[in-house]
Amino acid sequence: MKTKNPTAIFSFILILTMLACNMPGSATQQATPVPVQPTETPAASASATPTIAPTETEIPSPTVIPPTPTIAVFHSLTPSTNIKAGDLVHDVVSVDTAAENRAPYGDSYNINLFERPFTQDMTYIPDVDIVSYNLSHDEKFYYVSIELVGKNPNNEIGINYAVELDLDADGHGDYVIAARPPYNAEWSTDGVVVAKDSNRDTGGLSPEKSDAPLPGDGYDEIIFDSGLGSVNDSDLAWVRINAGRYATVQFAFKLWVAENKFMYGVLADAGPRSIADLDYVDRFTEEQAGSPVRGDKFYPLKALFGVDNVCREVQGFTGTGQEPQRCLPKK
Questions:
Q1: I need a surface site. Which of 85, 249, 301, 302 has the fewest CB within 10 A?
Q2: Mean pLDDT of the region 290-319
Q3: By the 8 A CB rule, do 193 and 157 touch?
Q4: What number is the average pLDDT over the span 237-264?
Q5: What is the DSSP annotation of 17-64?
Q6: Element (DSSP H or E) covering residue 148
Q7: Which residues pair with 251 in a beta bridge?
Q8: What is the pTM of this model?
Q9: Phi, psi dihedrals of residue 110, rounded to the nearest 5°
């Protein structure tokens, strides 16, 4: 038997394989590649959110609020502690009718007289109810003392007290010396304000009657506050409490403020407590203010409550007896 040549057999198989790869329809035919088009960046639409490159955020420097400086107030003159009461001027009190939630009388809205020592729900406040007031003086100060039914001017409700001065007796207040709590038994200028009315509107259009609703700024120029002010007099005005039977609250102020002829009145105020709104009868209508007198069509109290004031007494002159807001002359 003749033996086959292995080299010839391998060559024959290789030729057959090459012919098979070049035949049409072969499964191993390579697909023609599709050319790739360059991608264009689409235009941003109105609703598209643009990408913003990050920027460095500037942090504002904090606003430095300097501490309120504590200004030392030095006094060279202190009021006397031994004050003899002047002639007493009495006011209507509501203590006897308080249980009935009413004032007995004495509240006359049309002539700027208030007897309203009550809250809006007609709860009685004895520390607002003025019994009497009086004036005296020495060679340096005038002293105005207020006697109250209650004995706690530091009542937690918060009560301001004031003295109003009418220098020309025309019914329009010229100066007010006002004090806010807390009060001390010793003379102090803390919380004491002296202000003047620079445009003569404390009495409204008429110096006595209600002109409400009337805009105004009352005592609008503060010249002294707690020992400081434009008058450059740290001893100008003082207040103390419980100084005697007729001095539940007592004020002292320099003689030059009022000189020697003036009218004066006092005020206890746990309601509006705004010297810029005096006179209150010109800021509230009687209907808005309400009334402390049971049976009055505007009873009970509404916007104007917690207030007691007085008629004004004269000092240093006789006058006609017809001065606006003046007390009836003594016979």
A1: 302
A2: 97
A3: no
A4: 97
A5: HHHHHTSTT-TTPPPPPPPPPPPPPPPPPTT--PPPPP-PPPPPPPPP
A6: strand 141-148
A7: 144, 239
A8: 0.79
A9: -70, -15
